[in-house]
TrEMBL record:
NCBIfam families, sorted: HpnH
Domain Radical SAM core positions: 20-233
Chain spans, region Disordered: 371-395
Cofactor section: [4Fe-4S] cluster
Protein name: Adenosyl-hopene transferase HpnH
KW Transport (keyword) present: no
Highest taxon of the lineage: Bacteria
Alphabetical keyword list: Iron, Iron-sulfur, Metal-binding, S-adenosyl-L-methionine, Transferase
GO molecular function: transferase activity
Natural source organism: Asaia spathodeae
């Protein structure tokens, strides 16, 4: 089992409690992005295309703890940017796990060798290492040679030290099912505790706009992969029903509030993938977001989305409503032969709105207005393989 039994029980208990309390919307996983700065520049990433003033911002330890107190989700995924560039990351992890939150720390693994001693194995903590396929696939995805080998070395070292380690595998157009299946075999042999996989979301700021999968291609790709995986013991950290959805067997609508995102801008509306605005508080995010305006069929930018941050929560909530259904899929794996469920119509979706430039201008103005009279000192230091500018005030 990729997710520890106690974690599955606690999360299941939490979901049942929300249903009994009659809560229409509630978070399952708090997504924390305490910084946007990264030491890679991947072709499919839509998170790091910000000016330096914004890349130098950090959520403090206290802000991360406060975000947890506001959302109070049972699971927390810390992403970015590259979280290991954040100086307070060990304290953030310690603070959140002390509250008995299941923390997944998402990293490209480049700094893991140096930073591993700052962390301790803990049943509430797991590394989640970015690995988009085999060596050639991953190095191409992250636009840098040698990253795959360093990430694999980091996985080995973390496992040797007794940490839980999962991998996060995003797939793009052109991925070959046989190759992905071989890769899943390899990571299982490496001893990873689980795989989290999904298609890439077509971020409008990603440098490579050519290789995002549409929904039809996504479903066919995952069907072909899962067919090759029949009888193998691949361990996924995701709900079997989400995998069934990826293979074209569930007609799910997204649950964007299931994985709310707190960034240095505030609480992002409507979801982890789309930054259409920011709320000051978690309550404001939940109460005042026009949720009906988003999702496949409702909004052009959502047309091809099948990402776990939108649909995993739908799958988990479905599992509570239909436990016999999840039991069947967990036992036999996702359906790979029967006709797929009909696709959601896009006939009435509203047109995309483009807000990035205005949001950046607003944030930069805000930062300028907060500048101390003398202006911030900016030093340049070598964080890993290449120089990274870090504002003293931000760190
Ligand atoms: S479909 Fe849902 S999860 Fe995906 S981008 Fe749209 S709002 Fe976000």
């Amino acid at each position: 089992m990729a997710v520890p039994l106690m974690q599955a029980v606690r999360v299941g208990r939490y979901v049942v409690k929300q249903h009994l309390l009659g809560r229409k919307r509630y978070p399952l996983v708090l997504m924390l992005e305490p910084l946007f700065r990264c030491n890679l520049a991947c072709s499919g990433c839509g998170k790091i295309d910000y000016p330096a003033q914004i890349l130098n911002q950090r959520l403090s330890l206290q802000e991360c703890l406060d975000a947890d107190a506001e959302a109070d989700a049972p699971v927390i995924a810390i992403a970015g940017g590259e979280p290991l560039l954040h100086k307070e990351m060990p304290e953030i992890v310690k603070g959140l796990t002390a509250r008995k939150k299941y923390v997944y720390l998402c990293t490209n693994g480049l700094l893991l060798d140096k930073k591993l001693d700052d962390y301790e194995p803990n049943p509430f903590f797991s590394w989640d290492i970015h690995l988009d396929g085999d060596k050639a696939m991953h190095d191409s995805s992250v636009c840098q040679e040698g990253v795959y080998e360093r990430a694999v070395a980091a996985i080995r070292k973390a496992k040797e030290r007794g940490f839980r380690v999962s991998i996060n595998c995003t797939l793009f157009d052109g991925a070959q099912p046989e190759r992905v299946a071989r890769f899943f075999d390899e990571v299982m042999a490496l001893g990873v505790d689980g795989v989290m996989t999904a298609p890439g979301y077509a971020y409008e700021r990603a440098p490579d706009q050519e290789h995002f999968l549409n929904r039809q291609k996504t479903k066919q790709l995952f069907r072909d992969i899962f067919r090759l995986g029949k009888g193998k013991k691949w361990r996924f950290t995701q709900s079997p029903l989400f995998l069934n959805f990826l293979a074209g067997n569930e007609n799910y609508h997204c649950t964007p509030w299931g994985k709310p995102l707190r960034t240095v801008f505030g609480w992002q509306r409507p979801c982890y993938l789309l930054g259409e605005g920011y709320a000051k508080t978690f309550k404001e995010l939940m109460d005042d977001t026009a949720w009906d305006q988003y999702g496949t069929g409702a909004y052009e930018k959502c047309a091809d989305c099948m990402v776990h941050s939108g649909y995993e929560s739908t799958a988990v909530m479905d599992a509570v409503k239909r436990p016999w259904h999840i039991a069947k899929v967990a036992l036999f794996g996702p359906e790979t032969e029967k006709p797929m469920v009909p696709e959601i119509s896009l006939a009435n979706q509203r047109k995309a709105e483009y807000k990035y430039e205005a949001q950046v201008a607003e944030q930069v103005t805000l930062l300028e207005s907060r500048k101390p009279a003398r202006g911030p000192r900016v030093r340049v230091h070598k964080a890993e393989d290449k120089p990274v500018e870090v504002a003293d005030a931000a760190d």
